[in-house]
């Protein structure tokens, strides 16, 4: 039975070092929930608190209505998959998957078919009699996932499970993980520092920094409406332009953007994603100069100098003969609906209504 997870005011210290000062979040039953943030922000620490491998210095961890703070890890009914596959090298694929079942109350006749079901689901049934050393990294990670799922855990915890795989396999495996999670419907907490992976795989994402949650939301909300400058910079790429806010309006390269925070006056930082710039023939718009181009196949990145000498990055779909050479004058407009405006210190998004 999959469970909902409710974390209230979690506190984690190593000695005098406070790693997580006061963290609260709710994960829904069956949800694919990702902890995303830079190295050292406390993602693994929080995951290990959920698993029971880390002590909890304060707060409450609930699985459904039960407090699990003092519950032994072995009693939490958790499946885990780590970065290094952690499968037993001296056991066959099938014996690895059966391993977790041997310590539970199953009779021998049940164990084989249960393992087979997950070997088939993970598409490794044909390798069932092989030793792990004769499998690719992706196949080994499938074994680890089958072994984690076969015990019918209440929660699946994954810590950077794809980081040892090459780029192509990572894409394949993240799709496989997503499909299996949907099929099995198990509450999943996934740790990664890769924002693209987080967006591709998650129902919701918690962006963390320095042991604190910056924002929780769907991939779309987090990408389009980052609550502060840290999230805007961490998710995707963005251009930040300084501007003045007067009478609740900001002049962004000749376009007016209204803010919702009616008390704010002064300087602001405007965040514009590279794909929200349009190149136009309209000479009444902003005149700018292409300084550099990077062709990346599907897209081309242009580095363009604005009249104030700031260089912005603009991404356009590549077409066979539309490469704009450095030195070319271009005219720019922006899609104002997608623009975000932050306070000068970057702490608050002024175009969205804030709860606090
Ligand atoms: N056993 C430990 N003793 C002392 N400090 C620790 C211990 N484990 C982690 N830390 C510290 O806690 C902080 C958070 O570490 P954590 O591993 O949770 O970060 P992370 O976000 O998962 O980073 P990464 O993506 O690099 O794995 C870091 O500053 C780390 O040095």
Helix count equals 8
Kindly report the CATH topology of the largest domain.
Rossmann fold
Q: Give the bound compounds.
A: adenosine-5'-triphosphate
Shape: globular
Listing every helix as H and every strand as E from the N terminus to the C terminus, the arrangement reads EEEHEEEHHHEHEHEEHHEEEEEEEEEE
Q: Terminal Cα separation, in Å?
A: 35 Å
Secondary structure class reads alpha+beta
**Chain-averaged pLDDT:** 91
Strand arrangement within the widest β-sheet reads: 6-7-8-3-9-10
List segments where confidence is low: pLDDT < 50 over at least 5 consecutive residues: none
Strand % is: 25-35%
CATH superfamily of the largest domain: P-loop containing nucleotide triphosphate hydrolases
Number of domains: 2
The Cα radius of gyration reads: 24 Å
Overall helicity: 10-25%
Please give the largest β-sheet.
Answer: 6 strands, mixed
Top CATH class of the largest domain? Alpha Beta
GO cellular component, one term: ATP-binding cassette (ABC) transporter complex, substrate-binding subunit-containing
GO molecular function: ABC-type transporter activity; ATP binding; ATP hydrolysis activity
Protein name: Iron(III) transport system ATP-binding protein
Organism: Spirochaeta isovalerica
Write structural notes for this entry.
- This protein has 356 residues and is of the alpha+beta class.
- The protein folds into 2 domains: 5-229, Rossmann fold; 237-342, OB fold (Dihydrolipoamide Acetyltransferase, E2P), CATH 2.40.50.140.
- The chain contains 8 helices and 20 strands.
- Strands 6-7-8-3-9-10 form a 6-stranded mixed sheet, sandwiched between helices.
- The relative contact order is 0.12.
- Bound molecules: adenosine-5'-triphosphate.
- Residues 14, 19, 37, 39-45, 193 line the site of adenosine-5'-triphosphate (ATP).
- Residues 14, 19, 37, 39-45, 193 line the site of adenosine-5'-triphosphate.
């Amino acid at each position: 039975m999959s469970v909902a997870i409710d974390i209230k005011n979690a506190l984690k210290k190593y000695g005098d070092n406070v790693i997580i000062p006061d963290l609260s979040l709710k994960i829904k039953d069956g949800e694919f929930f990702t902890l995303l943030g830079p190295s050292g922000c406390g993602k693994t620490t929080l995951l290990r608190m959920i698993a029971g491998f880390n002590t909890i210095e304060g707060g409450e961890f609930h699985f459904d209505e039960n407090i699990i703070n003092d519950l032994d890890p072995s009693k939490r009914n958790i499946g885990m998959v780590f970065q290094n596959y952690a499968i037993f090298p001296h056991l066959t694929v099938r014996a690895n998957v059966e391993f977790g079942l041997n310590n539970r109350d199953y009779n021998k006749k049940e164990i084989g078919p249960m393992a087979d079901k997950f070997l088939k689901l993970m598409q490794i049934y044909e390798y069932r009699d092989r030793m792990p050393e004769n499998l690719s990294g992706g196949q080994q990670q499938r074994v680890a996932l089958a072994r984690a799922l076969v015990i019918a855990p209440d929660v699946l915890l994954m810590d950077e499970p794809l980081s040892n795989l090459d780029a192509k396999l990572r894409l394949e495996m993240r799709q496989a993980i997503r499909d299996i999670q949907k099929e099995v419907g198990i509450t999943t907490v996934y740790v990664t520092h890769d924002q693209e992976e987080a967006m591709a795989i998650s129902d919701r994402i918690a962006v963390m920094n320095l042991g604190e949650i910056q924002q929780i939301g769907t991939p779309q909300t987090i990408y389009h409406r980052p609550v502060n400058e840290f999230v805007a910079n961490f998710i995707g790429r963005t251009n930040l332009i300084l501007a003045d806010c007067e009478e609740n309006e900001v002049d962004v390269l000749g376009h007016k953007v209204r803010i919702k925070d009616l008390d704010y006056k002064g300087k602001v930082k405007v965040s514009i994603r590279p794909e929200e710039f349009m190149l136009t023939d309209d000479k009444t718009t902003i005149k700018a100069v292409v300084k550099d181009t990077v062709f990346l196949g599907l897209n081309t990145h242009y580095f363009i100098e604005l009249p104030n000498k700031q260089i912005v990055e603009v991404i356009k779909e590549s077409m066979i003969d539309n490469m704009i050479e450095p030195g070319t004058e271009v005219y720019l407009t922006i899609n104002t609906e997608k623009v975000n405006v932050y306070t000068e210190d970057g702490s608050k998004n002024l175009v969205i209504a804030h709860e606090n």
